[in-house]
Backbone:
């Protein structure tokens, strides 16, 4: 009986150590990745079908404009600078899109740091964490949100195939270390588990912060 208890204690300690190491590693890499990524976050007015469809039209027009002004961007800092200098244009595009669709919702734009869950973009996975992002709130902003990555240009995933183009992957790879890029592009149970551990603790932190 004593031998079994000792074995159980050692097993629990081993699991705890493995869990902590996995979390520490994934959390560290997650933080490094977020330092090189700029995201887009659009929140619909409500969860009605009409408002959700409107959100997607706003998304398409915003991304199309981003394509026009971001062809020469090679760093996150450049992306933030050019988006910051074109906020008026982004606001106009969103507002005009909403008006053309027959709605009078207000639009609120903000560049800041926001919480994001683990998200897949084609064959690339980004861990949960706090990321710099352009947030666009439509109307009361009480509906489901939509997010993507404005830099590197993971917003421009081919929706028909679910894959990223080589240029987007190349930019992402050049802005991450070999280890980080390998982690986000590797499709394995171990990687997904590490990201889920990070997301689990991020959810707890967010829940406590909102109390």
Residues:
């Amino acid at each position: 009986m004593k031998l079994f208890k000792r074995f159980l204690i050692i097993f629990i300690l081993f699991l705890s150590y493995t869990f902590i190491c996995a979390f520490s590693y994934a959390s560290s890499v997650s933080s490094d990745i977020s330092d090189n990524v700029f995201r887009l976050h659009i929140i619909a007015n409500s969860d009605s079908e009409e408002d959700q469809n409107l959100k997607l039209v706003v998304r398409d027009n915003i991304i199309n404009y981003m394509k026009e002004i971001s062809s020469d961007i090679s760093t996150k800092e450049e992306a933030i600078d050019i988006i910051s200098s074109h906020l008026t244009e982004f606001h106009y595009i969103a507002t005009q899109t909403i008006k053309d669709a027959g709605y009078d919702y207000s639009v609120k734009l903000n560049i800041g740091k926001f919480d994001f869950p683990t998200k897949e973009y084609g064959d690339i996975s980004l861990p949960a964490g706090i990321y710099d992002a352009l947030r666009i709130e439509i109307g009361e902003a009480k509906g489901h949100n939509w997010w993507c990555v404005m830099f590197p240009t993971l917003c421009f995933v081919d929706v028909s195939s679910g894959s990223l183009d080589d240029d987007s992957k190349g930019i992402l790879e050049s802005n991450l270390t070999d280890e980080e890029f390998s982690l986000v592009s590797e499709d394995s149970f171990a990687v997904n588990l590490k990201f889920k551990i990070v997301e689990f603790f991020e959810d707890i932190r967010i829940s406590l912060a909102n109390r």
Notes: Residues 158-162 have pLDDT under 50 and may be disordered. The chain has one domain: 29-209. DSSP finds seven helices and six strands in the chain.
